[in-house]
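Q&A FORM
Asked by: J.P.
Topic: structure of Putative transporter YycB

PROVIDED:
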Amino acid sequence: MGLQSSLAYIVFGWLPSILIGRGLTPTQAGLVLSGSVIIQLASSLAAPWLATRGKDQRLAIVVVMALTLGGLFGCLYAPIEGLWGWAILLGLGQGGTFSLALTLIVLRSRDSHVAANLSSMSQGFGYTLASMGPFAVGVVHDWTGGWNAVGWIFGIIGTGAIIAGLGAGRALYVQVQSEKI
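REPLIED BY: S.T.
REPLY: Here is the structure written out as tokens.
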């Protein structure tokens, strides 16, 4: 939950600045981000539906993360002429990762009590962790004076998300022990 949210916060907060650094006007950069976000609607609806066709969601997680990372790296490094294509890939990936992360909470829970515990843990810890991503991008940009090194942050967070997703995507239930008050 936190790693995919971190990438989303980075995109929402920094992608226009990255694109301006690559030569786009502020208006063009805003349009690219808006287009990417609009595309998220399709995959946010499709990814959970597709992922629930089976008991194991690991392939779905790898696919949406590959789309996300491909789109991010394309927006950062690929020739600017293909930017809209990379933004579409990014949107498809990010919409899918967010909805899939929320779907996994339900799929890995035997009952509503477990779902509530898993949700509070993953979202509470996850969103706290996610807030560090945009900060790290700003620090790396300030240290290096450019955007190219930010790709390392994308790669580290994305790799972490894939590793966590491979664990969370297994066809297992979370076991929760808690005392009722």
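FOLLOW-UP: Residues 144 and 150 are 9 Å apart (CA to CA).
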